[in-house]
Amino acid sequence: MHAHIPAPEVAGAKYLNPVLAQPPEALTGLKLEAQQRVAAGVTAVIKSMQFSWAEGGVGRGSRALLGLNQKNGFDCSSCAWPDPDEHRSVAEFCENGAKATASDADDKAAGPEFFAKHSLAELSRMTDRDQNNAGRLTHPMVKRPNDNHYSPISWPDAFNIIAKELNDCENPDEAVFYTSGKVPNEPAFLFQLFVRQFGTNNLPDCSNMCHESSGSALSPTLGLGKGSVTLNDLEEAEVILIIGQNPGTNHPRMLSALQKAKRNGAKIISVNPLVEAGLVAFKNPQDFMNPLRALGALLGDGTQLTDVYLQVRVDGDMALLRGIMKHLFEAEDLNPGQVVDHAFVAEFTTGFESFEQNIRNTSWEDIETESGVSRAELLEAANLLAHKQKIVTCWAMGVTQQRKGVETIQEIVNLQLMKGAIGKPGAGTCPVRGHSNVQGDRTMGIWERVSPKFRDALGKEFNFSPPTEDGYDVVEAIKAMRLGKTKVYFGLGGNLLAAGPDTEVIAEAMRRQKLTVYVGTKLNRGHLVTGETSLLLPCFTHVDIDMQKSGHQMTSCENSMGVVSQNKGILVPLAGEMMSEVAIISGMAIATLGDKTNIADWVAMTENYDVIRDHISRVIPGFEEFNRKLREPGGFYLPNGPRERKFTTENGKANFSTTTLDKHTLEEGQLVMMTVRSHDQFNTTIYEYNDRYRGIKGERRVLFMNEKDMADRGLKAKDLIDITSHFKGEERRVEKFVAVPYDIPTGNVCAYFPEANPLIPIGSVAKISNTPTSKYVVVTVVPTAVNNEVRIKAREAMMAE
């Protein structure tokens, strides 16, 4: 859908709607501290315990942590980093996982009394942290037309509302079904089954906003849209290249693997516009339990991780990779046959000559200008790679959310292929996924597109004809909703309002729906911006015991490296009327589809999740004998062609890519902004207002700026600023941010999401993948007007009247 969505009113939106779509502007008290150079350590242990015990109590919180990521326990609902195949420690979790689990194990309830006390407008004026900390959702709730409160509703009545609104659609494509990456395999499979039996492929999910660029790059080049390495490969690598990823905050358990790799002699090259603590050094909390290492871990500087740190400009990674490969080709000229793996290239690949010419023709001037990294620095990195073949490249959203994210990942593949660094121990590609089952959801068929093979297998298994036309991805769904082309939005977890681009466009899109349905565990801002009627349906978390007719149920998740393992809750759910995601989906399916589906099968799948897995085993390759393999300790690996040098592309080869290097074109005074998480945040869930590795305490509305860029604009530390984004002649402005001097390349700035998401235009997307460009937003920054505080107070007073 190429329809233009005009820029919304952003700064003034708080005066136009009583329910705030953006976090409130009230500042919470910024304190600047020294930027840290070591991740984890004893502080991470203390923070984990404090948060866990504060949320769930000492007993409940401790029990949850001891079952986290264990072979007979439950899967972390935070990131998708893999667990060790063999030995697992008693504390097989990180600070991030401890916070997510503690939040899930919360013993406070946000039930009917809570919603009777607070209107939607009042709740929207709470910070995102306070919304999350209000407690677990315990009862199904409804907001009826013209009401400003959620009130209780029975499950049958809720299902009947969903059924009526869906069946009133003129065609199935008037409904959008969004999925969070936190949803396990079994409910994800049922969800896509229901949606396709209903008659649409409108299945946007969080993959569209994170690693869609990875799949778009890897599938045509290697034949599989997933990474090729295992955890053992990472630990055996000779060189690890980490691009656009901050493991210390986003995937802390990865640091243990990097530490093992370093102790095995690996070299690490880090590429990031910010110098992140988790890429510099690591103090392993597990060492504090080892008498031989405890003192060194406490008093020492930790394990130094990065050997070469390349502080690239935002969106400059393609140029940087070309620079490294240009050096490698020059080294090959001097040492024929010793740098490029010609035997691998000849046997397994196509397109090498065009790729090589493209790299050699790229000028050093363009490489240095676009990357912001000198030729000498790039040579230092290339020298570490030149005579090595056990190379692993890791990347995350710092790459995927660029304008040229897909082609940048193709250059990563080019580097791996020219070195023959794939399909062998210690080598391969490693896109590091975010949410716990975001990769598994795609495997289960959560995708707005569907392969003919999957479609045929699904139709045969359930005796129906799945729709063949592609549905809406996230960006196209938001546009369709905003343009009034849809009537129903159903969100299975997540917080699209806070995760997506152009916050006020999403808000208006939601308000135009006849029905919005939100399945969730805790309150978030997305639940408050609603359609004419809205349902808020409480579900279990990974940590909750899920009892159905056949007994204690388990689900499964697929991690970043293609391992499927079981998830079995260990805590009794809070008192209330929560249901499992499987039961919610089945109830909706039965009410909506009626005699168009096999109701007995939906009942059977709800009573015993083994029945779901039997269906999956006959539909999805790699899941044969699913129930048996899932019960093996640690789970099982899915098939991975590139891991075995089997490239299932159209030509049966691994394909080199010939990409195009775009140049920055900024007007005077413009900067390039990227958005990131804070340390006390996972995805859109805010646990606290701090970001201790970056020296931020007590505030989220900050903009990290190079000191020279600040001086050029007459700014000093803690000055209030307004930020305006610029895209195709349109502007979006947010007010009342705080300028923070930081070690970031000139011309680049950085802010947290979701606070900065209103600046990201819905039309600014990566080529091919259609992923919003959260890592490339052109902005200008000015001091907040002197009278701005007075103006804000006057408008707030007017609104109060």
TrEMBL record:
Query: Cofactor(s) for this protein?
Result: Mo-bis(molybdopterin guanine dinucleotide); [4Fe-4S] cluster
Q: Which UniProt keywords apply?
A: 4Fe-4S, Iron, Iron-sulfur, Metal-binding, Molybdenum, Oxidoreductase
Q: Where is the Molybdopterin oxidoreductase domain?
A: 136-517
Report a single Gene Ontology molecular function: molybdenum ion binding
Query: Where is it found, in Gene Ontology cellular component terms?
Result: membrane
List the CDD domains: MopB_CT_ydeP, MopB_ydeP
Q: What lineage is this protein's organism placed in?
A: Bacteria, Pseudomonadati, Bacteroidota, Cytophagia, Cytophagales
Q: By what name is this protein known?
A: FdhF/YdeP family oxidoreductase
The entry assigns this protein to a family as follows: Belongs to the prokaryotic molybdopterin-containing oxidoreductase family.
One Pfam family matching this protein? Molydop_binding
Q: Name one GO biological process term.
A: cellular respiration
Domain Molybdopterin dinucleotide-binding, residue spans: 671-776
| Stored Gene3D superfamilies | 2.40.40.20, 3.40.50.740, Dimethylsulfoxide Reductase, domain 2
Q: Does the keyword Iron-sulfur apply?
A: yes
